[in-house]
């Protein structure tokens, strides 16, 4: 019974990780395409739009890393996942900081 539940948990978590990773990549790609379009159109909000899109993509990818901690088995894997989470959280913090500064400069 426990083995079956563990197998189901692993399947659900693995599928969810792939979904969140995919959504993060899609968000970043769409943001990049919109950034190119905004650059061509000389849109003044290009930096703000890029930062917000990157933050959204990183949030999805951070969610996938947090889910990854559920199925980690070894201490070395925990260290790698923790390092990735810290790096992505730091990037998200910096991007949100840049968004706040960009919004303040617009006002």
Shape: elongated
Given as residue ranges, the uncertain stretches (5+ residues, pLDDT < 50) are none
What letter string, H or E per element, gives the SSE order? HHH
Taking the alpha carbons of the first and last residues, their distance comes to 60 Å
Largest sheet: none
Mean pLDDT: 88
Q: Please report which band the strand proportion falls in: under 5%, 5-15%, 15-25%, 25-35%, 35-45% or over 45%.
A: under 5%
Based on DSSP secondary structure assignment, what is the total number of beta strands? 0
Describe this structure in words.
The protein is mostly helical and 107 residues long. The chain contains three helices and no strands. It is elongated.
Question: Which key phrases capture this entry?
Answer:
mainly alpha; 88% helix; 107 residues
Write the layout of secondary structure elements.
Elements: H1 2-40, H2 46-68, H3 75-106
Helix pairs in contact: 1-2, 2-3
A few lines on this structure:
With 107 residues, this protein is mainly alpha-helical. Helix content is 88%, strand content 0%.
